[in-house]
Design brief:
Layout (H helix, E strand, L loop, with lengths): L3 H9 L1 H9 L9 E2 L4 H9 L5 E2 L6 H8 L4 E9 L2 E11 L2 E8 L9 H13 L4 E9 L11 H4 E4 L1 E3 L5 E4 H8 L4 H9 L23 H4 L20 H6 L17 H11 L3 E3 L1 H8 L6 E11 L12 E11 L5 E7 L5 H11 L5 E4 L6 H11 L4 H9 L1 E3 L2 H4 L3 E3 L8 H8 L12 H13 L3 H32 L1
Parallel strand pairs: 1-11, 2-3, 5-6, 11-14, 14-15
Antiparallel strand pairs: 3-4, 4-5, 6-7, 8-9, 10-16, 11-12, 12-13
């Protein structure tokens, strides 16, 4: 029996379908936190008090039988041919059933149409006449009060929305236009075996949005490529073709076959120079703006689909930790850390103002994409600290810039410029020695710490979080010193 997710993988790539079938179930850490039972919230929103409620592993006959016994069916499982579906909410309305899908975003999009069309295909083949099709989703205008109000938190739409959040068409019409006989696809999936598939071919689907889970299985040779391999060329549409043509190293890449990005020139020149390239004039100019003391700042935060605290909106971000390293001109460094449990944003804003010197430069790594945003969010929330927090955001420099812009490149970076990659080239102390080594792992640990009753375990997590966030700002001190040494 297949699920819709299997069909989706097969349609994206048969190799991915086979890979995921063999892969052990991995422990996926959701980026966005969803603590509440959305099923219960939707039941409250739609006023469902009496219903049939389906569960994983239910025999398909159970839901069919429930059709005659209940007006509402929640998470009912149905099967047809070789496909099994879960229908989130369906309501008998005269002779037809109205369908309610759950969309845990703010504006339901039509880009997951296969999910809706295949559900309808299965329901129709179970003899279920379908009336309206609606989406229950989070209300963009909702601001949480003291308690969560499902009636206001959720909203019901009959329209899909565009990526610019404009209505893009009636859901029922779009779904019915897209329904097709899935038996042919299921036949193909039955016949799909490694022996019948041609070798994987690299296309844009392998790395569009994010790198495919099966990438290293499909193309294992890439993981062993040399630091100077042409495949390390950033943003190159020609690198695989060049490799095929015998251009194997960065140093041999002709100017006519690059897109002309600064980082590409830096990568080629680094290999020609024995491994390191630095545009010392540009770097000196960038460093000349730095004023002492230099403060390095890093935040950790969690994102909540359903606002957990008063005053929060759906998908608001809650910063829970920051680390600050302050480096004086004579090399002296002091370290400060703030770590909360729950919503301590006011205390955090006050501590930031206390901990960060009003003078000197303020730096973060990927400042535009994270720290500046966090500071502006806090400024928006606490009017009394607005000026001080906005001043911090305005004077913040991005330490990533010299790498991102191609001022500096070391072939050991292998086309990447994350803080971890750069730190890995420079210092004995590294992320490898820490209990927490990744941002998402830090978020997961924080989620555990919040609910852990054992004080020893709490303390262990706290120390791990402090070490991880502290390593990020320590790493920035090392990187800045290295850049200064280069000029
Ligand atoms: S890496 Fe590319 S070829 Fe391999 S499974 Fe993914 S999409 Fe298919």
């Amino acid at each position: 029996m297949y699920h819709i997710s299997d069909c989706r993988k097969y349609i994206r790539c048969p190799h991915l379908f086979l890979y995921e079938q063999k892969a052990e179930e991995s422990s996926y850490i959701p980026f966005v936190r969803l603590d509440e039972s959305m099923t219960e919230l939707v039941k409250a929103k739609l006023g469902i008090t009496d219903c049939f409620e389906g569960h994983r592993g239910d025999p398909a006959e159970l839901a069919k039988q429930a059709l005659s016994e209940h007006e509402w069916l929640v998470n009912a499982r149905f099967e047809y041919d070789r496909l099994r579906i879960k229908m989130p909410f369906m309501h008998r309305n005269g002779d037809v059933y109205d369908l309610y899908f759950l969309y845990t975003g703010l504006f339901p999009r039509g880009d997951n149409l296969l999910y809706y069309t295949s559900t309808v295909w299965v329901l129709e083949h179970n003899g279920i006449p379908i009336g309206d099709i609606r989406m229950v989703h989070l209300n963009v205008d909702y601001v949480r009060g003291e308690t969560l109000d499902p009636a206001e938190l959720l909203t019901v739409s009959e329209q899909f929305f565009t990526s610019r959040n404009h209505p893009s068409g009636n859901i029922r019409t779009r779904v019915f236009e897209g329904v097709y006989d899935m038996s042919g696809l299921l036949d193909e999936m039955d016949l799909c075996t490694a022996e019948h598939l041609p070798a994987p071919v690299r296309t844009s689907r392998c790395s569009t949005r994010s790198r495919c889970n099966a990438y290293e299985t499909c193309f294992p040779e890439e993981t062993t490529e040399d630091n100077s391999s042409v495949l390390m060329l950033t943003g190159s549409s020609e690198k695989y073709a060049m490799k095929k043509d015998g251009i194997l190293r960065l140093r041999d890449v002709p100017g006519s076959r690059i897109e002309g990005l600064n980082i590409q020139y830096a990568e080629i020149l680094a290999d020609q120079n024995g491994g390191l390239y630095a545009d010392r004039t540009a770097l000196r100019h960038w460093l000349s703006n730095i004023q002492w003391p230099v403060t390095f700042l890093d935040f950790e935060w969690d994102t909540f689909a359903v606002p957990p605290y008063e005053g929060m909106r759906p998908y608001d971000v809650l910063p829970f930790e920051y680390s600050v390293h302050i480096m004086e001109e004579d090399g002296t460094v002091t370290h400060k850390i703030f770590l909360s449990e729950g919503d301590d944003r006011r205390e955090m804003a006050e501590a930031l103002i206390r901990d960060i010197p009003a003078e000197g430069s303020l730096m973060a790594y990927n400042a535009e994409g994270a720290e500046k945003i966090r500071l502006r969010e806090l400024a928006e929330r606490f009017a009394e600290y607005r000026t001080a927090l906005l001043d911090m955001a305005d004077r913040m420099e991005d330490l990533q810039l010299p790498f991102q812009s191609g001022m500096v490149y070391d072939v050991r970076m292998r086309g990447q410029w994350s803080l971890k990659t750069i730190m890995g080239m420079m210092d004995d102390r590294s992320y490898k020695d820490l209990d927490i080594r990744e941002g998402m792992q830090a978020v997961m640990e924080w989620r555990l710490m919040e609910h852990d009753e054992d004080p020893e375990e709490k303390e262990k997590i706290r120390k791990g979080l402090e070490a991880y966030c502290g390593m990020d700002t320590y790493a920035m001190t090392v990187v800045l010193k290295w850049l200064m040494k280069l000029v």
